[in-house]
């Protein structure tokens, strides 16, 4: 059982925060033209750089065989001998895929039931996606091991705890910004602590 | 309606008990000093009203997150319910007051006579914690200063985020 990654999206559908733990699929930093500060801490993309030189907390659990934590459809992007720096999806594309799948599934769920019903999670053989939506349009997405129970309560705890304390009550964070994420050291370490304290983590 | 409003009252009381408090006098005097400073800076009551509203709006956009996290309420199904929640839960949580809620008579809304629910409501602050020690000079009253206009901004900002 483990937790792979966390995404937070805002009301403008932009990814404003990303953090990962035991990812098994490599991820590249986005190209400089699509770079949005304050979202993730992936080392900036450089032409000669290999994917293995990412910051230490993200480089754990690398395996070339890779159980996919990302979207399975994108699997052909890797392993085609394009060189180590080309492995994995760029971050911005992966975030778009995650948001897209959440949004379209949510709309289908609503249409099928005819009521305003929330999508809570779905799972594949390789991962499980948990979704928590706030009324203000923030969407918290967590990818975890498929065998884990519902982790929606964890996302709610993140919202009422770390998010409120270090983002909403932080005057230095522009909450409705389209150009910047909400990353800050305290929030990142609080999220990290919270996740590592969970029994499903490990 | 009455059972719903009782339920909201209970939620409001409950959240208020668990809220961290600040000294009411410090809060009131700070707000008063803020308004005075704005008047000095802008020298125009209309502009002061506008600034207070803007400050409130910025507070409201963040306060709504705090409110939702604490109460865990779901989306309101009707406008009347929204009014109830603002009066009985929101004002209770943050200011420990419960403004009187009233709906203007239906004839006052010629624009939407067919609407089954009210499309506007009035919150009357029976006691206003912001104005506890405030005594407006005559020229401020006549000049059209809206002393507690920050509250309007907070409501607008908060509701806009959940619209």
Main pleated sheet of chain A: 5 strands, antiparallel
Gross CATH architecture of chain A: 2-Layer Sandwich
Our count of helices of chain B gives 6
Number of strands of chain B: 2
Largest beta sheet: strand ordering of chain B: 1-2
Order of helices and strands of chain B: HHHHEEHH
Subcellular location (chain A): Endoplasmic reticulum; Golgi apparatus, cis-Golgi network
Protein name (chain A): Trafficking protein particle complex subunit
Region (Disordered) (chain A): 32-52
Pfam family, one (chain A): Sybindin
Detailed description of the structure:
The complex is a heterodimer of chains A (202) and B (163). Chain A has 202 residues and is α+β, with helices and mostly antiparallel strands. Chain A has a single domain, classed as Beta-Lactamase, CATH 3.30.450. Chain A is 26% helix and 16% strand. Chain A has 3 helices and 7 strands, in the order E-E-E-E-H-E-E-E-H-H. A 5-stranded antiparallel sheet of chain A has the order 2-1-7-6-5, with helices on both faces. A two-stranded parallel sheet of chain A has the order 3-4. Chain A is globular, with a radius of gyration of 16 Å. Chain A starts with a strand and ends in a 6-residue tail after the last helix. Chain B is built from 6 helices and 2 strands, in the order ααααββαα. Chain B has a single domain, classed as Trafficking protein particle complex subunit 3 (Muramoyl-pentapeptide Carboxypeptidase, domain 2), CATH 3.30.1380.20. The longest helix of chain B is centred in the middle third of the chain and has 27 residues. With 163 residues, chain B is mainly alpha-helical. Classes of the chains: A alpha+beta (202), B mainly alpha (163). At the A-B interface, helix 2 of A face helix 3 of B. Chain B: InterPro entries: Bet3, NO_sig/Golgi_transp_ligand-bd, TRAPP_component. Chain B: It holds the Pfam family TRAPP. Chain B: This is Trafficking protein particle complex subunit BET3. Chain B: It comes from Kockovaella imperatae.
């Amino acid at each position: 059982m483990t937790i792979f990654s966390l995404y937070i999206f805002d009301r403008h559908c932009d990814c404003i925060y990303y953090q990962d733990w035991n990812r098994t699929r490599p991820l590249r930093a986005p190209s400089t033209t699509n770079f949005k500060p304050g979202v993730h801490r992936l080392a900036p993309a450089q032409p000669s750089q290999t994917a293995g030189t990412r910051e230490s907390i993200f480089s754990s659990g690398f395996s070339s065989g890779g159980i996919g934590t990302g979207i399975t459809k994108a699997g052909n992007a890797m392993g085609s001998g394009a060189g180590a720096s080309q492995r994995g999806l760029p971050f911005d594309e992966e975030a778009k895929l995650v948001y897209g799948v959440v949004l379209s599934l949510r709309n289908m769920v609503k249409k099928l039931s005819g009521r305003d019903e929330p999508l809570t999670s779905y799972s594949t053989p390789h991962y499980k996606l948990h979704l928590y939506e706030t009324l203000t349009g923030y969407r918290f997405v967590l990818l975890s091991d498929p065998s884990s129970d519902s982790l929606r309560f964890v996302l709610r705890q993140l919202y009422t705890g770390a998010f409120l304390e270090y983002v909403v009550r932080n005057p230095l964070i522009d909450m409705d910004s389209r150009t910047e994420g909400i990353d800050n050291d305290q929030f990142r370490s609080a999220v990290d602590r919270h996740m590592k304290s969970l029994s499903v983590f490990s | 309606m009455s059972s719903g409003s009782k339920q909201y009252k209970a939620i409001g009381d409950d959240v208020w008990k668990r809220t961290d408090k600040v000294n009411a006098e410090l809060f009131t005097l700070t707000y008063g000093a803020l308004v005075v400073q704005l008047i000095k800076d802008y020298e125009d009551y209309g502009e002061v009203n506008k600034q207070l509203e803007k400050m409130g709006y910025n507070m409201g956009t963040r306060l709504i997150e705090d409110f939702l996290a604490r109460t865990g309420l779901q989306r309101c199904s009707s406008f009347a319910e929204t009014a109830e929640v603002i009066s009985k839960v929101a004002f209770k949580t943050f200011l420990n007051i419960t403004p009187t809620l009233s709906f203007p008579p239906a004839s006052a809304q010629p624009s939407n006579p067919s609407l089954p629910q009210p499309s506007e409501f009035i919150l009357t602050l029976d006691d206003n914690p912001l104005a506890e020690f405030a005594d407006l000079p005559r020229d401020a009253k006549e000049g059209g200063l809206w002393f507690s206009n920050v509250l309007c901004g907070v409501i607008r900002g908060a509701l806009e985020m959940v619209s």
